[in-house]
Amino acid sequence: MPVVGISRSARGYCMNLVLETMKTYSSEDGLTEEALVTKLRTCRYHHLFLHTSLRHNSSGTCRWGEFGEGGLLWGECAARHFEWFEGNPVIDLLSKVKELYGLDGEVTFRNVTVSSENRPRPLTLGTATQIGAIPTEGIPCLLKVLLPSNCTGLPVIYVRDLLLNPPAYEIASKIQATCKLMSNVTCSIPEFTCVSPAKFLFVEQLVKLLELREANHIEFCRIKNVVDEVLHMHKYSELNQILKLLMDPTWVATGLKIDFETLINECKWASDKIGEMISLDGESDQKISSSSIVPNDFFEDMESSWKGRVKKIHIEEEFAEVERAAEALTLAVTEAFMPIITRIKATTAPLGGPKGEILYAREHEAIWFKGKRFSPAVWAGTPGEEQIKHLKPALDSKGRKVGEEWFTTMRVEDALTRYHEVGAKAKARVLELLRELSSELQSKTNILVFASMLLVIAKALFSHVSEGRRRKWVFPTLVDPPRLKDVKPLNGAYGMKLVGLSPYWFDVAEGSAVNNTVDMQSLFLLTGPNGGGKSSLLRSICAAALLGTCGFMVPAESALIPHFDSIMLHMKSYDSPADGKSSFQVEMSEIRSIVSATSKRSLVLIDEICRGTETAKGTCIAGSIVETLDKIGCLGIVSTHLHGIFSLPLNAKNTVFKAMGTVYVNGQTKPTWKLLDGICRESLAFETAKREGISETIIKRAEEIYNSVYAKEGLSGGNDTELQHVCSYASLNGSDRPHFQSNISREDSERSRSINRMELLQKEVETAVTMICQRMLIELYRKEKTSELTEIRCVPIGAREQPPPSTVGASCVYVMLRPDKKLYVGQTDDLEGRVRTHRSKEGMQKASFLYFTVPGKSLACQLETLLINQLPNQEFHLTNVADGKHRNFGTSSLSLEGVTVC
């Protein structure tokens, strides 16, 4: 989280971000007030500084925000804790940061500002909230439909920030090209475990821990996961192309410019370095000491803080000393206390008497003898007498007697002291090794930050593509805008065309939306009844344009979208009592901001313009705004119920009249939610009021007044253009790494053999599955004479991998290879969800899978049953053999001789 400084310049507002952990800063200039407020509302920061340049405005006063521009920003900042500063907005802010964190004056900060040239303007607050880029109550949330529900944390934040700050055309093109490749990937992909929501501050904490040399083995395991997943992508040709495309988006997100070969080489170095030192998951050569006499909790508490942190080869001497000390302690305790316990048990009366046991005194980190109703009296001629003579009261660290029941001996205390000494020595050695590793990795901080962010972006885009395929969205054709401002588009080449556009909050796969085709070459003046879908259309167009401009998939059948320099949506306005502004004042303020930022490469969407003031003058203001936008030559829509605008002498040569259609059914006018050419003067106001519960008496009286006043003026006529179309009753709601060679213990050898057995099992299963299913498909091909023979191609999914997006909606047959070497056969149209479900069960976290896709669920079911019934004949053990009895398919014995494996 950065320190934020806000200032004002001739170009607009400026936002400076300083990251103390990374010793970097970045600046973004030329922001509008609306865009700056949007950034503040979504930014998580440590401290906020406001520059004194903000106090001066066009009114000539120093009472910032009281008059005109600045009120919205002041309202946002007034509710936050901030400090004023003056001087150079960057240099003095860095001085404040050094003072704040107690840094030496010689510490330098590196500028990682990414140029905003050719980048679209950030979204205004109104636009961001009205399409749900910033979640807002009552507004369909765009973020929720872009990603699956199980995708949370940093990938969501990345997508949100990309929507709020759309990228330049070159980066958007890279993102779209990446998503297209992801959509067709057939190999398994990493799980991207390093970006779970529980690790929000992982990168920042990691940098700080490396700097302070306090990173523990868990952090190092996370780092290795990060670099290994980058190397996993580099290993496969399909994923390697994606990895290369992600370099530029990661540069923009981090400000760090890193060469591809450098990234791969440094990731290999970091992975090998950590792999040489850190004891990784599954390594079992450092078992906690154990004894049948000494309570195991004692050894667990004493040794768990350092065992299993680094590889045993680095602490062989310390490890051996601890083992010898533990054995000596066990022997001392056994010889000192066991004869006494045996004696007590042999002489205890049936109804009570003294008791004795060996216990772990956790508070004192000691193993002592505890005797209840026991006194160390000497009984002549009885066993244990010699041991009782050596007992003495147990003492705490300050030499005070612990209690009347606790006893020890000098030999036990000496063994305890020796055990603690060698344990402390071993722990100190482990910490020393971890600190040395921290020092070595500190020089690679930029690489680790870059790799972490790259995986965040990869996770976000893979998730988006999976959800987009499920929703049947498409990749738009993204048009590069003219480089020169005086170059005009030819034949509408830079217009926008959305075919089969649906509201983004509807699931197209469920078929519940009314689709529209929007072919926009200029400004639209849109009319339509209440509830006719004007607002929904504007939201849908805005979302599609924004998604296309960012390189994402869009909710349409096909789309051509220019890379806009700004996308602005204005909808309903509310009053702002804190600023002393009425709703109309707020609306005019927002439209001023929109018009001043509009160019011919902008998309402007204004819903029900000038609704908050007197009709005649509001109509004229609306007409003048339409003229201005028409003259600029931007694309956009202005919707209105002010039908008097069509009677104004407007000089708007390129504006096209569009309407939301209606149809007359059973004596009632109903909306169809279809966009058509023409003008619609029908408001359906009475029908809407009646539907929302206004009494019949009020409605009838309103109709009487309307007929007596407006009918005489000839203003009650129908549509200027006859709108005929089908009525719809849908509702718009809203490389392999060099292996580190070391002395391999017996446990390591066992684990290696186990892994080899699993690999062998996987190959055997793959061969059997391919032969069984391919034989069946050949028989079906000959019998049904189909045009194409389906080829069985098994794809493996490793223990820390997941299916690619290309499996979304595809019929898959899969085999799960459980850790106990048993198999489970299944079929599904949601392979990712099924894999996640299997791995959520106890002991199945590291299960691997084989899968192949087939055309159609019916065939998948047949092959599933076939495999369930045939694999046991190949001496494979299945956990769901009973499922094969659900169908009569595949129960006969198939001969596998002569089978050709494609």
Automatic annotation (TrEMBL):
<protein>
    <submittedName>
        <fullName>DNA mismatch repair protein</fullName>
    </submittedName>
</protein>
<dbReference type="InterPro" id="IPR000432">
    <property type="entry name" value="DNA_mismatch_repair_MutS_C"/>
</dbReference>
<dbReference type="InterPro" id="IPR027417">
    <property type="entry name" value="P-loop_NTPase"/>
</dbReference>
<dbReference type="Pfam" id="PF01541">
    <property type="entry name" value="GIY-YIG"/>
</dbReference>
<dbReference type="GO" id="GO:0030983">
    <property type="term" value="F:mismatched DNA binding"/>
</dbReference>
<keyword id="KW-0067">ATP-binding</keyword>
<keyword id="KW-0547">Nucleotide-binding</keyword>
<feature type="domain" description="DNA mismatch repair proteins mutS family">
    <location>
        <begin position="602"/>
        <end position="618"/>
    </location>
</feature>
<dbReference type="InterPro" id="IPR053276">
    <property type="entry name" value="MtDNA_mismatch_repair_MutS"/>
</dbReference>
<dbReference type="Pfam" id="PF00488">
    <property type="entry name" value="MutS_V"/>
</dbReference>
<keyword id="KW-0238">DNA-binding</keyword>
<dbReference type="GO" id="GO:0006298">
    <property type="term" value="P:mismatch repair"/>
</dbReference>
<dbReference type="InterPro" id="IPR000305">
    <property type="entry name" value="GIY-YIG_endonuc"/>
</dbReference>
<dbReference type="GO" id="GO:0005524">
    <property type="term" value="F:ATP binding"/>
</dbReference>
<dbReference type="InterPro" id="IPR035901">
    <property type="entry name" value="GIY-YIG_endonuc_sf"/>
</dbReference>
